[in-house]
Amino acid sequence: MLPLFAAGLTLALHRYARVQRIISVTALAAALAASVGLLFAADAGPIVVEIGSWAVPVGIDLVADRLSAVMLTVSGVMLLCVLLYSLGQGVPEGEDEPGTTRGDMIPVAIFHPTFLILAAGVANAFLTGDLFNLYVGFEILLASSAVLLTLGGTAERIRAGSVYIIVTLVSSLLFLTAIALIYGATGTVNMAQLAERLPEIDPTVRTALQLLLLLAFGIKAAIFPLSAWLPDSYPTAPAPVTAVFAGLLTKVGVYSILRTQTLIFPDNPAVDQVLMVLALLTMVIGILGAVAQNDVKRLLSFTLVSHIGYMIFGIALATEAGTAAAIYYVVHHISVQTALFLVVGLVEWRGGSTSLDRLGGLAKLAPGLAVLFFVPALNLAGIPPLSGFLGKVGLLTEGATVGTGLAWVLVVGSVVTSLLTLYAVVKAWNKAFWQAPSEEIESDVPLPRGMVLPTGALVAFGLLLTVAAGPLYGYAERAATASMDGHTYVDAVFPDGAERGQGESVVATDDEGSDAP
């Protein structure tokens, strides 16, 4: 609610840029504080709120369990850092700043309310206990992200935005169709109630509904072969927008797959096998695309697609340890991928380009920037003892424990993907920072402190995930246990088993004064 309320205020006060900044930062900082509070509170058990006091399943419920709380917290950190970064970069259109082209400038009055609405949509998607409200969350994301993607109104951004809107609308149509069919088959869209009713319907129908949902979520999560749209869409946007898209939007799709696979569609080995194949293809084909790139934004966009495969790998294992590793890896990847795209924004500011053929010598010109790129790049590649290495070890260990032929193929594919990721990021670092530049780069372009500090904070947060890996991984394991169990979630939503499905709300009074349920 805080980002939504702040979005209305910033829209009404669009002529007052300083006030907009204060409102936006305050709202996201307060939302982050609330998320941290939920992170600890939900560790004792899920927290349920019935919207408008309408009892489920008649009304919509919001459920904060360990999984949603950890996703809210890490996304809150990322959103706040990106917002602060954008304040350091963003200037009203029409002004000139060193190292910035007109297409890179952010029209601040539009950016703030749209960014806050995006934050509200993300929170709604993570907290909702209702499939249709999850669809609403995705539509909020679609509306706001389409505006953010086309900021500046350049032809390239309009083209990329058009492709993005078409793809996401197709995904939304598939999702809405799946919701209608699920409601027709079960009479509900409440996820806790679906966990009880779906096992009672025909297995063939249940599998068809599961695959349709996976198709819709797979487009949003950019799983191969549904990922072709992403590398062409993300690199065209301003650096803060690209960073928030890369770090968060695909993870909402991954979260949706994780939530539905563990809660309402557990124990379907055939679908798990399909997910394993898709995870392998996503990892390998994505990283091969990254190796072939000579633009650092496109290279990172392909690594984003590739590493979605690791998360799907953990989900497809359908074990508590695999799910825990997937949760930890999602948290790691949100912070590291976002930090890398923010660093690339600094590289573009300092070097005037993201083409590796035009960059070079930045390690000498901006040694601090070289460090900011090098640390999360190694983390993404999974170099020990960083968090990327720990997440991958968890996935590989559980893959070996499952021990099926396909699981072993995925273990090998994961190792190969990690090595190719290291090759891709080292190539980018070498060309951009180490080798001599092919063109003269200005030596007197300062990096704005307002952009460097949030980037450094996010890089430090990625390192914190390594330092605090023990407690965080333990939290992920408890989240995975509760998610795989299912009864914890259902019992929190319906604390009185005898009342499940009745949908009785607070007592209402008719016009004559008599009580009626």
Q: Care to describe what's here?
A:
This protein is mainly alpha-helical and 517 residues long. It is 72% helix and 2% strand. It contains 20 helices and 4 strands. The strands form 2 sheets. A two-stranded antiparallel ribbon has the order 1-2. A hairpin with a 5-residue loop joins strand 3 and strand 4 (515-516). Helix 3 packs parallel to helix 13 (320-351) and helix 11 runs parallel beside helix 17. This is Na+/H+ antiporter subunit D.
Structural class by secondary-structure content: mainly alpha
Largest sheet: 2 strands, antiparallel
From N to C, what is the helix and strand string?
A: HHEEHHHHHHHHHHHHHHHHHHEE
Mean pLDDT: 86
- Number of contiguous helices: 20
Number of strands: 4
Terminal Cα span: 29 Å
| Unreliable spans | 91-105, 503-517
Radius of gyration: 23 Å
Beta percentage is under 5%
How would you write the strand order of the largest sheet? 1-2
Q: What oligomeric state best describes the polypeptide chains here?
A: single chain
The percentage helix is over 70%
The geometry reads as globular
Structural topology:
Elements: H1 2-12, H2 17-41, E1 47-50, E2 61-64, H3 66-89, H4 108-127, H5 131-149, H6 155-186, H7 191-197, H8 203-221, H9 230-233, H10 239-263, H11 269-291, H12 296-317, H13 320-351, H14 362-365, H15 367-381, H16 387-402, H17 405-434, H18 449-467, H19 469-485, H20 487-493, E3 508-509, E4 515-516
Antiparallel strand pairs: 1-2, 3-4
Helix pairs in contact: 1-2, 1-4, 2-3, 2-4, 3-4, 3-10, 3-13, 3-18, 4-5, 5-6, 5-10, 6-8, 7-20, 8-10, 10-12, 10-13, 11-12, 11-17, 12-13, 12-16, 12-17, 13-15, 13-16, 13-18, 13-19, 15-17, 15-18, 16-17
